[in-house]
Specification:
The protein is mainly alpha-helical. Helices cover about 65% and strands about 0% of the residues. The relative contact order is 0.08.
C-alpha cells in the first residue's frame, strides 16, 4: 500500500539544460512567494489547504484500490497459466502409452504381436557349439552392464527432474485463494479437502 501510494503521488521535476547554454539564474523570489498565507486569504488558507490535501488523499486511495484490484485479477490469470504449463510439462509414467492406445485401436494388437514374437521358443534354430555359447555370454554381459549404466543415469536424471505436477498444484492453491478473495467463488462451493489447502495472499 505504501509503495503504491508513493508511486501514485510521485511527481518528478526535471528541467533539461541544452549544451552550451548556461543556466541563467531566475529572478530572485521573495519569501512571500512560498508563503501560503500570502497567496491565499489569511482566513481561508488553512481550510483550503486541508480540503485540497484531503481530496488528494481520497483520489490516491481510489487509485490504489483500482490498481490492487487489477493486480489480483492479473494474478488469477497468471496462476491459471502456470498451472496449465506445469501440467503440460509434467511426465506421467504410462501416460504416452495410454494416449497412444486410446487414439490408435491397433496399438494394443501390435504390442501383443511383438511381445508374442519375442517370447516364442527358438527350437527351430540350429544348435550352437561351446565357443558360440561363450561368445554370446560375453556379449550378453556387456549388454547387461551397458543397460545397468543407462538405467543408473536415467534414475539420476529423474531424481533431479523438476516436479512440474507439484508446482502446478501449489499454483492452483494460490489460484483458488485469489478466486475466493475476489468473491468469484464461495467457500461452501469448494470441497473441504481443497479448502483446507487453499493459499491466501493477504494483499
Amino acid at each position: 500500500h505504501r509503495f503504491l501510494k508513493a508511486y501514485i503521488q510521485h511527481r518528478p521535476h526535471f528541467q533539461p539544460v541544452t549544451p552550451g547554454s548556461a543556466a541563467s539564474p531566475g529572478p530572485a523570489a521573495s519569501i512571500s512567494t512560498f508563503m501560503l498565507d500570502n497567496r491565499v486569504g489569511a482566513g481561508a488558507a488553512a481550510s483550503s489547504y486541508a480540503e485540497e490535501e484531503a481530496q488528494r488523499d481520497e483520489d490516491a486511495e481510489r487509485e490504489i484500490r483500482r490498481l490492487m484490484h487489477e493486480t489480483r485479477l492479473w494474478r488469477v490469470a497468471n496462476s491459471a497459466q502456470w498451472v496449465a504449463w506445469g501440467i503440460v510439462q509434467a511426465k506421467v509414467e504410462g501416460m504416452d502409452e495410454a494416449l497412444a492406445a486410446a487414439n490408435n485401436p491397433t496399438f494394443n494388437s501390435l504390442v501383443s504381436s511383438a511381445s508374442a514374437s519375442t517370447s516364442a521358443p527358438a527350437s527351430h534354430l540350429a544348435p550352437d557349439g561351446p565357443e558360440k555359447h561363450e561368445e554370446k555370454a560375453e556379449v550378453g554381459k556387456e549388454e547387461q552392464k551397458k543397460k545397468e549404466e543407462e538405467e543408473g543415469e536415467g534414475e539420476e536424471e529423474e531424481a533431479e527432474e523438476f516436479d512440474y505436477l507439484g508446482y502446478a498444484q501449489d499454483r492452483a492453491m494460490f489460484f483458488w485463494g485469489d478466486v475466493l478473495g475476489l468473491g468469484l467463488v464461495r467457500p461452501d462451493e469448494l470441497p473441504p479437502g481443497l479448502l483446507a489447502q487453499v493459499k491466501v495472499v493477504g494483499y
